[in-house]
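User: Can you predict the 3D structure of ATP-binding cassette, subfamily B? Sequence below.
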Amino acid sequence: MVSIGNNELCSSSRPVPDPRKEPMRTHDGPSWTPPDRPLDPTLPAQPAQVRRILRLFRPYRAKLAVVGLLVGAASLVSVASPFLLREILDTAIPQGRTGLLSLLALGMILAAVTTSVFGVLQTLISTTVGQRVMHDLRTGVYAQLQRMPLAFFTRTRTGEVQSRIANDIGGMQATVTSTATSLVSNLTAVVATIVAMLALDWRLTVVSLVLLPVFVWISRRVGRERKAITTQRQKQMAAMAATVTESLSVSGILLGRTMGRADSLTRSFADESERLVDLEVRSSMAGRWRMAVIAIVMAAMPAFLYWAAGLTLQSGGSTISIGTLVAFVSLQQGLFRPAVSLLSTGVQIQTSLALFQRIFEYLDLRVDITEPEDPVRLDKVAGEVRFEKVGFAYDSRSGLTLDGIGITVPAGGSLAVVGPTGSGKSTLSYLVPRLYDVTEGRVTLDGVDVRDLDFDTLSRAVGVVSQETYLFHASVADNLRFAKPDATDAEIEAAARAAQIHDHIASLPDGYDTLVGERGYRFSGGEKQRLAIARTILRDPPVLILDEATSALDTRTEHAVQQAIDALSAGRTTITIAHRLSTVRDADQIVVLDGGRIAERGTHEELIERNGRYAALLRRDAQLAPAVS
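Assistant: Sure. Here are the predicted structure tokens for ATP-binding cassette, subfamily B:
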């Protein structure tokens, strides 16, 4: 299905309304979830949200199980070294048992090697799983946005959408690729180390862990602070991305320079960047001093343990062997790294929850225009289009944009829709390819309600050529093939010839391999229009909608484009939305809209003889013609 209006992509994309032609109304009904609805990031994560995050990893359960086994094995092997060290200090060296000493030292080396190998394998598998989850999230959000109605995009800045996919999902990379595994690994290491410490000496273990609850409380507070700051930071990044997207596009650059606002835009961007700097610094420093205190206490713990052991010995308490004390301190130092990492992981998870909330917002957006459960598929479309008592409103709070529209366009027939700006002309054309669904009545294709058709049938049946042509930053051939990916070079050339653009393409240095530039700015308006027509010819739809396809062109270019349109319209059901009435004189039926209602209908001759609104529009065109030409 071709796009229409301001972003006419090709014959298989959905159009975007041109706000210059009709006032655009946004859809504010209850089914819409605002992409920036306020969140309270200081609240703890809800169990349902945590369960939803865990479900993302469900397809990779087998690989995660292998990671768990590697983590457990690595933790068990790592805590064996202090026990080997105790035997070296208490038995092998004092008794001069060289053979035992060699075996114990070899065991410590093997433990280190085994732990490292398990760590590398664990990192490989967990990173692979994490990246697959990232891929699933990106694809899911993109697919969801592809299904959203046009009203969503008319009220959402492009940069905001891009930021959700790039920055928010990108910000979760550490969480889904390494944090989850780090959590399991460090938790296992902490538990195994504490068990080993208890086996060595329970009294020293109690002394070592007395401050642990305080550390946990501190890390939770730091996590909540960073989560709140992260939410603000991501919104600021989205705002900055939107500014870049709008001001550094070709249109934005042209507007900024011709209006002399380049310096102003730079200052505005600098202000946005300055706010982001502040948030980045706050995010980085949030709780940093408190975490530093934890690190200092953990690092000082060996000295405290030596001091406590010395006091115990001097007071006549149970003797702690040198080997046990050194092994215990070794375990305690081994506990330091995973314990601090575990606390930091908790902070990272709290921070990432803010990003998950923003992503889930987009995944939860309701899609109003959906394919029916049992859609109708038409193998061959004749092309009869009917509007049966059609009414349409952009939202529940505004009045009807269209009211009581009844029109029949026979297969192969032509309809022209004219009227003043804001009368509902383009809105009427949006209903045929289901860019919007009717509020009242129905629109049918070959007698079937378009809401009952499958999307593939509808996209193959309806093609649109609009005033604003969107071209990708790709070659001419690639832009044409977007309508028909399997088109041969001969088919592309035939479509270009029919659209009166082949000779111009052939004269270019790279021919059909010429890059069209951002939004096709290497081509003139008439050339882009004829490329759009060639693209639609390649698609070969039985129903064609021409949405003011020549209204912005000069007289000479309009004549060339009109020849291409005539070739395209031959044998197709054609609905023309027209501003210049010179292009609709030969239509089988002309409908004049005013205020969303049909004011007049008939052929050109009948309406001239009636001397009503159509005749008045013709007189207006005649007065404007000298100025336009």
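The longest strand covers residues 385-392. The radius of gyration is 35 Å.
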